[in-house]
Specification:
The protein is about 75% helix and about 0% strand. It has about 90 residues and is an all-alpha fold. It has one domain. The chain is built from four helices and no strands. It is globular, with a radius of gyration of 13 Å. Helix 1 packs parallel to helix 3, helix 1 crosses helix 4 and helix 3 runs antiparallel to helix 4.
Length: about 90
């Protein structure tokens, strides 16, 4: 079985989206988002194509934040925060 970028990144992206949905319900998820992004980037960094995978996660988070429905400000904020944190980890 051959792993694909989508197959490797999607579970990490969905984990953050689930947290963003919880934030929309009023749950404080800031620590959980930072932890999820940190763990995701660390797991992806162990792959042979780490740079591609990590960039795909950042792009996915930014796309999800940009496509957030109007009025779901907490949702969009969490996704944008996660994208910013992940992008910061790309530089290190």
């Amino acid at each position: 079985m051959r792993a694909t970028v989508v197959g490797l990144v999607t579970p990490h992206l969905l984990r953050v989206i689930d947290l963003a949905n919880e934030a929309e319900k009023g749950v404080n998820v800031d620590w959980h988002v930072r932890d999820a992004v940190s763990r995701s980037m660390a797991e992806l960094a162990d792959q042979y194509n780490a740079a591609t995978l990590m960039q795909a996660l950042v792009d996915g988070l930014e796309s999800a934040a940009g496509n957030a429905p109007r009025g779901r400000t907490a949702y969009a904020r969490v996704l944008q925060s996660a994208a910013t944190a992940a992008r910061g980890m790309l530089r290190h």
